[in-house]
Write a structure and sequence with these properties.
six-stranded mixed beta sheet; alpha/beta; 12 strands; DNA-binding; Rossmann fold; HTH_LacI; DNA-binding transcription factor activity; disordered N terminus; 434 Repressor (Amino-terminal Domain); transcription cis-regulatory region binding; elongated
């Protein structure tokens, strides 16, 4: 066709070049519902290549009831943990022929609501979701009839699939490791306490201290954002008074900010302040010193989440994954 690039090529154009009906072209593109002779199928494929025809996915979605897309909503994509998780989910979805649409809530609950609404209007086939403060918009999702898999520790909700690690236990295990070094003065950098995951991590820290017969000291609880800046600010406050000998930071970014602030004061981990963090990623391995960290099995979690999503209307399932305590030099090992 001489001018096919000047307008959108249609199936009628392909049928004309192939010498078949539009219906036959549709059967070849959709691999059914009726069989097509091999010679005819090859003619249609050749015509598709010649014309440069590209199927209209929107029209196909309207006809099939599937957009071949999943939505993913995370609190903050600048956090390497969520970036790593998104990449693993995208790869797993792609392996199943799906496209992943990403929504970054920017740690804002109202923005999270708007993102979910937007993805539902686009008729995604399913929603993967980590809530900003673990008060998910379940009513909105249920009303749409869209399958959903939560990637978080959530309150028990009938009919909701979820994958998670036990964050309270993970925080407790990390703090126990600091105690095993002989440290008894142990602080915590915690996220905003309006967020339920911050409460879980704080409670895990307390559990370990109380188990060891140590009274948690309120002045060593530093509530700051889950960011490098948050960790930096907490450390600036920490060095002004009697400081703990070790700190559990509630995420990797806080630990990296802490290392930066320590260096400004001529202090080092673990010599002056031992560190262990939650939600370690590859960045933990390449910090100076390398960070001891609780790591979640992201690849396995992504595989299970997409498998749950593919099951669609299957009964709700909750799967809890074991975390790993990755020990490096920052804690004194």
């Amino acid at each position: 066709m001489d001018n096919h690039s000047a307008r959108r090529v249609t199936r009628a154009d392909v049928a004309r070049v192939a010498g078949t009906s539009v219906a036959v072209v549709s059967y070849v593109i959709n691999n059914g519902p009726r069989p097509v002779a091999e010679a005819t199928r090859l003619r249609v494929l050749a015509a598709i290549e010649q014309t440069g025809y590209r199927p209209n996915d929107i029209a196909r979605a309207l006809a099939s009831g599937s957009t071949q897309t999943y939505g993913l909503v995370v609190p903050d994509i600048s956090n390497p943990f969520f970036a790593t998780l998104a990449r693993a989910l995208q790869q797993e979805a792609f392996s199943r022929g799906r496209v992943l649409l990403l929504g970054d809530a920017g740690d804002d609950r109202q923005r999270e609501y708007e993102l979910i609404n937007n993805l539902l209007r686009r008729q995604v086939d399913g929603l993967l979701y980590t809530s900003v403060d673990r008060h998910p918009w379940f009513d909105l999702i249920r009303a749409s009839g869209t399958p959903c898999v939560m990637i978080d520790t959530i309150d028990s909700q009938a009919g909701v699939c979820a994958i998670r690690v036990d964050e309270r236990d993970a925080a407790c295990q990390a703090t126990r490791h600091l105690l095993q070094h002989g440290y008894r003065d142990i602080g915590i950098f915690i996220g905003p306490l309006t967020m339920l995951n911050a409460q879980d991590r704080l409670n895990g820290w307390r559990d370990a201290l109380l188990e060891a017969g140590i009274a948690p000291r309120d002045e060593w609880i530093f509530e700051v954002p889950y960011t490098r800046q948050g960790g930096y600010q907490a450390t600036q406050r920490l060095v002004q008074g009697p400081r703990p000998r070790a700190v559990f930071t509630s995420n990797e970014q806080q630990a990296l900010g802490c290392l930066s602030a320590l260096a400004e004061h001529g202090l080092r981990a673990p010599d002056d302040l031992a560190l262990i963090c939650f939600n370690g990623t590859q960045q933990s391995e390449f910090s100076v010193p390398p960070l001891s960290a609780v790591e979640q099995p992201i690849d396995a979690m992504a595989k299970r989440a997409i498998a749950m999503m593919a099951a669609g209307a299957a009964p709700a399932e909750l799967h809890e994954f074991a975390f790993q305590l990755r020990i490096r030099r920052s804690c004194g090992c």
